Amino acid sequence: MTLSERNILFKGEIGIASVVLIGVGITAFSLMPVYPGVLAEMARRSPGSFQALGVYFFQPSPYVPVVSMLCAMLYACITMVIIYRYFEKTYSPEILYIALFVLSFALEGSRIMVPLKLKYELPSVYLIMASRVLLFGRYGGILSLFVASVYAAGLKVQKQSIMIWIIIFSTLMITRGVPIDGLAWDSSFCMISGYLGMFRILEGGMALITVVSFVISAYSRGAKEYIFIGIGSLLALMGRNMLLGADTWISPFPGLAILGIGTWFICTYLHQVYLWL
Question: Could you tell me the pTM of the whole model?
Fold first, then answer.
């Protein structure tokens, strides 16, 4: 993929993230009276490693999932603009997949379907479709960051478009086979899906390999910047888990801050690696 083709793709991602943010933002504001009812009918608290620390001490708020969702989409918009400006004239194979990781946060807007269903009594099929979109974004995002680390460690694939299609196809296969309860949701406005424990282990394993691959790249390529990129990846994944699973006010803003710091590490040091190439 040439530099100009990649930049066109970045512009498209900025456009998609912006349109989704505006549309979901307007809809979310109009649904303000519905959120307490959505929380009242939840099936369980939101799962997650960070979420479990406060689940016994803090009660969920009906507005936190909306704030978390909007923060995730705003992060996608702003970060995509920064990536485009930072790397507009700098070639880096990893940044394409990091941009896909960032774009995946825009799909968090699909969670708005839960309050929409409650207000307009929509069929459950719409909730299932929205849930598959959400899972596609979450699993596709972490898989994209994983591929970026493998590229840094020495993966040689000439046509990046092939790898993008592999990510899309693999994620579609995963999300298509996940059973989803169309009548139950948790406190973060996510539908209840199956195989949660298995996917948690898979996600944790991929996150670990991602960080380790970036650290290995620092020694195999003689560029110490990859150590900081690995640290940034760890912070980004930690912040991501805190932000996306939030249902109390102690989680979304610290999660967003950690996510932002991690992304800043990734982009800044990756830009240094390729600045003079």
Answer: 0.94
